[in-house]
User: Which sequence fits this backbone?
């Protein structure tokens, strides 16, 4: 059965939302550690120290600060990402002169994912800004960068609107795009190459849950190894602009390298690498299986 493009887009969007939800629920504590260590590397000696201090400061709930905007961010990002991924695959097919139903190579899928990520960044940036600020609120208050404020999603949203207006939600957009576009080339490239490896001659659609999760983990590792310093600068810009410091991407990069050294750009890499396998494995498992289920229902109908 030839599927309607609108129905196909709705399926991709819904499956992407399922994947985004699974990703956040699996990896949120590690994401919190990553953002804290990126933004305040001098406060933490390592992952274990960050975990212990976070628990001592605000308890177990501290690991899940920013979960609601993280859910919104990941659901929005992955819904748009996978919906646009389907469209961008068709664009790539047209560019290379393939039939609409033709299978793309792993490299072509990586290019389609890279194109799709630019659209996803537009919905991700505002929600990730709120998430990062909530995750580092304790450090911002104790370091004197901001006065004590309400630690809620709505208070952060109101603060951004009052200080910078609607465009304030796009602090860090350039660094988000610099992270997403090359990062998702490696993300989808690593995922598709891993699926090809595990399939070894069979159809990639026949892979079971373990190879899918491992492939998703490889994709996540490839993404973060490729663009981690850019993500670190993005976190700095989004969090520190809360106190009025807005140096921009180049200014923040130069400032970090000059005052803290190159190694500071890799603060929080360990929790990110640990998070990559379960979070991205869960993302692709939820995406592929929910998409397969909806496609089978559509074909049966």
Assistant:
């Amino acid at each position: 059965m030839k599927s309607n493009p609108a129905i196909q887009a709705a399926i991709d969007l819904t499956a992407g939302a399922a994947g985004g939800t699974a990703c956040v629920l699996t990896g949120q504590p590690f994401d919190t550690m990553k953002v804290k260590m990126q933004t305040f590397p001098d406060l933490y000696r390592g992952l274990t120290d960050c975990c212990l201090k976070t628990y001592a400061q605000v308890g177990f709930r501290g690991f899940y600060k920013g979960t609601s905007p993280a859910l919104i961010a990941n659901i929005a990002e992955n819904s748009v990402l996978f919906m646009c991924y389907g469209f961008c695959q068709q664009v790539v097919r047209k560019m290379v002169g393939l039939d609409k139903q033709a299978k793309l190579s792993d490299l072509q899928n990586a290019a389609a994912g890279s194109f799709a990520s630019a659209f996803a960044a537009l919905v991700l940036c505002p929600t990730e800004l709120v998430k990062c600020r909530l995750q580092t609120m304790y450090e911002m208050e104790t370091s004197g960068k901001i006065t004590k404020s309400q630690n809620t999603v709505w208070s952060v949203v109101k603060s951004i609107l009052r200080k910078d207006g609607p465009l304030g939600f796009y602090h860090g957009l350039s660094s988000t795009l610099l992270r997403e576009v090359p990062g998702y080339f490696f993300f989808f490239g690593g995922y598709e190459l891993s699926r090809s490896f595990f399939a070894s001659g069979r159809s990639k659609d026949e892979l079971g849950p373990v190879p899918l999760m491992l492939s998703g983990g490889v994709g996540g590792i490839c993404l973060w190894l490729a663009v981690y310093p850019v993500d670190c600068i993005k976190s700095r810009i989004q969090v520190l602009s809360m106190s009025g410091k807005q140096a921009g991407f180049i200014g923040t990069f130069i400032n970090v390298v000059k005052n803290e050294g190159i190694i500071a750009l890799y603060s929080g890499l360990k929790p990110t690498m640990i998070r990559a396998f379960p979070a991205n494995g869960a993302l692709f498992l939820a995406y592929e299986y929910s998409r397969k289920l909806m496609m089978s229902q559509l074909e049966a109908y």
In short: The two ends are 10 Å apart (CA to CA). Residues 64 and 99 are 46 Å apart (CA to CA). The mean pLDDT is 87. The first helix runs from residue 5 to 39.
